[in-house]
Amino acid sequence: MEKTQINNFKEHIYYEKLDNGLQVYILPLKNKKNYACMYVTKYGGRNIEFEVDNKQYKTPTGIAHFLEHKMFDRKDDPFKYYVKYGTDVNASTSLDHTGYYFMGNKCFYKCLLYLLDWLKELNITDDSVKKEQGIILEEANMYKDNPDRVLYSKIKENVFVNDPSKYKVIGTDSDIISITKDDLELCFNTFYNPNNMYLIITGNVEPNKTMSLIKENQKDYHPEKKNVKIKYNKEPDQVAKDYESLKMNIEIPRVAVAYKVNKQVFEGLDIKPIELDIYLHCLFNISLGMTSEIREHWLKKNMISRSFYRIYEIETHYVIELYAVTNTPDELVEELEKYQKDFKIDEKSFEREKKLWIAEEIRSIDTPMGSLYSVLDDVLDYKHFIPNKINIIKKLNYETLDDIKNRLNLSNKAIVKIMPDR
Q1: pLDDT average per 10 residues of sequence, the chain (422 residues)
Q2: Closest CA to 153 of 166, 137, 138, 140
Q3: What is the CB neighbour count within 10 angstroms for residue 275?
Q4: What backbone torsions phi and psi does residue 145 show, to the nearest 5 degrees?
Q5: What is the C-alpha to C-alpha distance for residues 412 and 130, in angstroms, rounded to an integer?
Q6: What is the strand order of the sheet 35-41 is part of?
Q7: Contacts of the segment 121-126: beta carbons below 8 A, 24+ positions apart
């Protein structure tokens, strides 16, 4: 078991890859009474086309989310089990992973062993799958009346031409009702394999005892290791649809603007992927974040009641999205366009942003769930935990930031508006 110090803090993270391929991270937090644990499979809403041992498969959209639901279909109901110990349990599916987690402050080892055994098998019937289709369709219909959900889904649909990120994680109605027991068993056997999974534990835990318990539980669990390749069709730089306006039963309009940037523009930079990610987040936090000049301007003019931005990536592109609740969506988009063309960052603002990032790194270790997600983000984005982020941040320089800014091409963008239907 490897032991690594985190950012020169007193905390250390423990790591081991087990014989069956499961990667385990344990981050004890002293002076904490509670704990958090997440069992993660690198399987999410984007993974609908894949190859297993040279055989091609194309599955319905929404199947990763559907499978998450069916994993709770057990005689010993997970919710009832965990509530006995005063422990919260749940799961979530994103575009790139599905995570099952529990949080509590007692009976950790019982809760851990249950989780490890729970995800070893899938027990479903044709009838139970049919019943679940109705439940998930009801959930999907609720989202259709939520303007923020609609805006979030529609901007992705309009940004991506081929990448499955354009589909809702919950899936389309027609795909939900087409999912079969065989589909779910195929995906479970393919992706719920220890070789494709992480176990992340943080908080009030003892690392040696915890690792010994995990090894004992997993020593005879060696499902067949498969040769799996995820298929993504080539994504062009152009967006699928550059403008769309919808109408819904709302009082205040909403707008989303998304920029699609090919990663090739950053070729030749002598920096690591995590450094590029931090530079981009610094750049857009200064330009579009909570204390940005443009947001302060919009608030003073009473143009917005709420706004935020986010950055995510696929294999070939970054996507930067801005969301706003505004009575003047057209004026906001026009001002944003001019602002982005004229925007400049000075070195002082960049140094201040670096300090904020360092403070965030320090805060991330304060809570079990916060530290868990810090580990999870790293292993998903970079395939391993990065323990020295503060040193990385300190070494970032203004000249490279300015170079990155000048390389950005924000011409490929999509705009989606939602207007009141009255």
Answers
A1: 93 97 96 95 97 95 98 93 95 97 96 97 96 96 95 98 97 97 97 97 97 97 92 95 97 97 96 96 95 94 95 97 97 94 91 95 92 96 96 96 95 97 85
A2: 166
A3: 17
A4: -100, 0
A5: 42
A6: 2-5, 12-17, 23-28, 197-203, 35-41, 98-104, 88-93
A7: 122/67, 122/70, 122/71, 122/184, 122/185, 122/188, 122/192, 123/73, 123/74, 124/70, 124/73, 124/181, 124/184, 124/185, 125/181, 126/180, 126/181
Q: Which residues of 124-163 are buried (b: 16+ CB within 10 A; e: fewer)?
A: beeeebeebbeebeeebeeeeeebeebbbbbbbbbbbbeb
Per-residue tokens: 191: 């992706």
What single letter denotes the amino acid at residue 114?
Y
Amino acid at 366: D
- List C-alpha distances in Å: 192 to 68, 250, 321: 11, 41, 31
CB 103 within 8 A of CB 29: no
pTM of the full structure:
0.95
